[in-house]
Amino acid sequence: MLKHLKYRLPVFRLMMVKEAKTGTLPSIKSALDAAELFMPLCFAPEEHFVALHLNSKYEVIGLHEVSHGTLSASLVHPREVFKAALVANSYAIIVCHNHPSGARLSASREDIATTRMLIDAGKILGISVIDHLIVGPQPGLVDKKNKSRVIPLSIREEHPELWERELEQI
Q: Within 10 Å of residue 42's Cβ, how many Cβ atoms?
């Protein structure tokens, strides 16, 4: 049937393109593991919102820059976050954005609302949102066990109720 329709309607084909081949992909066991991958964002002059894509063993399968904004904002919509996750066949994602101003790392109302929307959309699509991290240039914030790591702000740790609540009626 599709064969006959393609002469009347545009037919789309989805394809994932990997931009670079890398070595062994890391496994994510904690927010600190993910934060280490996001370290380059700490010093970016504009806000970036990225999604780390994971398979069912929580191994990294890829990274997608969802949005690149201004000094203080980056527009994010669940459609853009999950588009790449669906094409990459992701089991779960960890999202992260940076606060380039160097201001104290804290989740704004917008950060919490975005996280809530992503968790709800992920539940519908069957893709877990493991955490939403915020990173930035914070001198003095280091993991006491491993001084080379920066401690990110984990919205999951600060607001666990976002992950515990039931999906709202749509």
A: 17
Q: Please state whether beta strands 92-98 and 128-135 pair in parallel, antiparallel, or not at all (unpaired).
A: parallel
Give the helix, strand, coil percentages of the chain, each rounded to 5.
Answer: 30, 20, 50
pLDDT band (50, 70, 90) for residue 166: low
Q: Which amino acid is at 10?
A: P
Closest CA to 108 of 138, 142, 74, 68: 74
Neighbours of 128 (CB within 10 A): 16
pLDDT tops 60 at residue 167:
no
Question: What is the model's pTM?
Answer: 0.78
**What is the Cα–Cα distance from 63 to 54, expressed in whole angstroms?**
9
Tens digits of per-residue pLDDT, 23-72?
Answer: 677 788 887 788 888 888 877 888 889 999 999 999 999 889 998 876 55
* CB distance 93 to 130 below 8 Å: yes
Q: Is the distance from CB of 54 to CB of 61 less than 8 angstroms?
A: yes
Higher pLDDT, 104 or 5: 104
Q: How many CB atoms lie within 10 A of CB 142?
A: 13
Residue type, 81: V
The tokens describing 32, both together, are 């600190």
Supply the CATH classification number for the domain 26-164. 3.40.140.10
The type of residue at 88 is: A
